[in-house]
Amino acid sequence: MAKIVFALTMALATWLAVPVIALAQAAPQSASTPTTPVPAPPEPTVSKPAKASKSETLTIAGYPGQVPVVQLNDKSYVNLEQLARLTKGSLTFRADQILLTFSVTPVAPPEPPKPKTGFSRAFLQASIEQLGVVREWRSGIEYAIQKSYPLGDEWVAAQRRNADKSLALASAAISTEDDRSALPLLTAELDFVQNLSDDYLAMRSDAQYISPDWLNNDTQDQQILTCSRGIAAMFSENKFQDVADCH
């Protein structure tokens, strides 16, 4: 009987031990099996905001008005319809094209230059030299009369050549209306002193006595002086004013 009990006990122990051994052998195998990693969730995509637009305008030369310009991401944009209105043009829409036609505006002719007023610097300098030549010419005649020093035709001719040369320089320097209007006065002053020289030479050729104070009573010599003073006063005003004593 004891042997039977012992046999049953051993059989029961063996039956219980088999699942435990199987479980122990299965545990290491499960631990050594590689596991598939779980992917991390994707990071959220953050879009960059567009750059703030600046307020600007577009102006086209020859067309009045302006068109707003929108600046976005470093690029400029305008409304085509507004651009067409600005240029008085037209928009034509085709299959895959947009045609913008500008209107042709007549180009205004340039304004004529305004005439210069007053005396030009070059004319003024040449005229002052001309008056100086005429004054020296008259002074030579005055000195000859006072000192009874005879003057000949050659001296008078040399004075005339110098006066003509300076008058030609003044004429070439004309650039304003005042310059052009003043030239006849210089010419008249030159003619006056030429007439005075002719009278003096005529008296010398006739062997007439010439009083030292002859010029004081000569109306032509007085006109030479008053004409010269009037021209000088006109130049100081830098504006043409007719001088009656030069006519």
Task: Describe the structure in your own words.
The structure is a single chain. The chain has 247 residues and is mostly helical. It has two domains: 55-101, no CATH class; 121-246. Helices cover 54% and strands 9% of the residues. It has six helices and five strands. A three-stranded antiparallel beta sheet has the order 1-2-3. A two-stranded antiparallel sheet has the order 4-5. The longest helix has 31 residues, at 2-32. It is rod-shaped, with a radius of gyration of 58 Å. Residues 1-9 and 11-33 have low confidence and may be disordered.
Helices, strands, pairings?
Blueprint: H1 2-32, E1 55-58, E2 67-72, E3 75-77, H2 80-86, E4 90-93, E5 98-101, H3 121-147, H4 153-172, H5 177-205, H6 219-237
Antiparallel strand pairs: 1-2, 2-3, 4-5
How would you summarize this macromolecular structure in one to three sentences?
With 247 residues, the protein is mainly α. The chain folds into two domains: 47 residues, no CATH class; 126 residues.
Structural class: mainly alpha
Q: Which segments are poorly predicted (pLDDT under 50) over 5 or more consecutive residues?
A: 1-9, 11-33
Question: What's the number of helices?
Answer: 6
Strand content is: 5-15%
* Beta strands, count: 5
Q: Compute the separation of the termini in Å.
A: 182 Å
